[in-house]
Design goal:
The complex is a heterodimer of chains A (111) and B (110).
Chain A (H helix, E strand, L loop, with lengths): L4 E3 L2 E4 L5 E6 L6 E7 L6 E7 L2 E5 L7 E4 L6 E5 L8 E8 L5 E2 L3 E5 L1
Parallel strand pairs in A: 2-11
Antiparallel strand pairs in A: 1-3, 3-8, 4-5, 4-9, 5-6, 7-8, 9-10, 9-11
Chain B lengths: L4 E3 L2 E5 L4 E6 L6 E7 L6 E6 L5 E4 L2 E5 L5 E6 L8 E9 L3 E4 L3 E6 L1
Parallel strand pairs in B: 2-11
Antiparallel strand pairs in B: 1-3, 3-8, 4-5, 4-9, 6-7, 7-8, 9-10, 9-11
Chain lengths: 111, 110
């Protein structure tokens, strides 16, 4: 097991385009989290899955954001009609119940 | 409003000095975790403290959880350039999500 894998590592997109990120958690971990981290700040919670069920969404997750975990394994985070304010590091973490392992993140730059 | 306040936000000291980073909140957490993050990478867990008053040591790093489980500190003895990085505290409620502080960017000068 190579830990939590995120793809792509970097994404540059034009404002208004849609982007999708993928997260592959540690295989036996049933919980999966998405966080967003802007420069100089700590990560902020976006959403959380237990298996395939999305159990909590932050108010930070506007209607342009959608996350899925269709088979309780990998997850995708889609941002529609990107805005410059969406530029950030998007982090995925997984957990068996206690303890979290973070991926290396996807750095999104909206130009 | 930051639920977890870390101080200082920036710290630059000479190799061999000691330092303490603080993480404070008005909220009670079931556990508190400390992470270290390198540029362009995700946070890496250093330690989890669960019991009020708990002290854990990791080589030259000492972590303490406040008696009321609202605050924590990280003390580094004889800092080395390899300790340079962003240190994050994160509080957990009910094992469902983490609330992070804004981080302390530590620079150890040779």
């Amino acid at each position: 097991d190579t830990g939590v894998s995120q793809d792509p590592r970097h994404k540059i997109t034009k404002r208004g385009q849609n982007v999708t990120f993928r997260c592959d958690p540690i295989s036996e971990h049933n919980r999966l989290y998405w966080y967003r981290q802007t420069l100089g700040q700590g990560p902020e919670f976006l959403t959380y899955f237990q298996n395939e069920a999305q159990l909590e969404k932050s108010r930070l997750l506007s209607d342009r954001f959608s996350a899925e975990r269709p088979k309780g394994s990998f997850s995708t985070l889609e941002i529609q009609r990107t805005e410059q304010g969406d530029s950030a590091m998007y982090l995925c973490a997984s957990s068996p119940q206690w303890g979290y392992t973070f991926g290396s993140g996807t750095r999104l730059t909206v130009v | 409003t930051q639920l977890l306040e870390q101080s200082p936000q920036f710290l630059s000291i000479q190799e061999g000095e000691n330092l303490t980073v603080y993480c404070n909140s008005s909220s009670v957490f079931s556990s508190l975790q400390w992470y270290r993050q390198e540029p362009g990478e995700g946070p890496v867990l250093l330690v989890t403290v669960v019991t009020g008053g708990e002290v854990k040591k990791l080589k030259r790093l000492t972590f303490q959880f406040g008696d009321a489980r609202k605050d924590s500190s990280l003390h580094i003895t004889a800092a080395q350039p390899g300790d340079t990085g962003l240190y994050l505290c994160a509080g957990e409620r009910g094992a469902q999500k983490l609330v992070f502080g804004q981080g302390t960017r530590l620079t150890i000068n040779p």
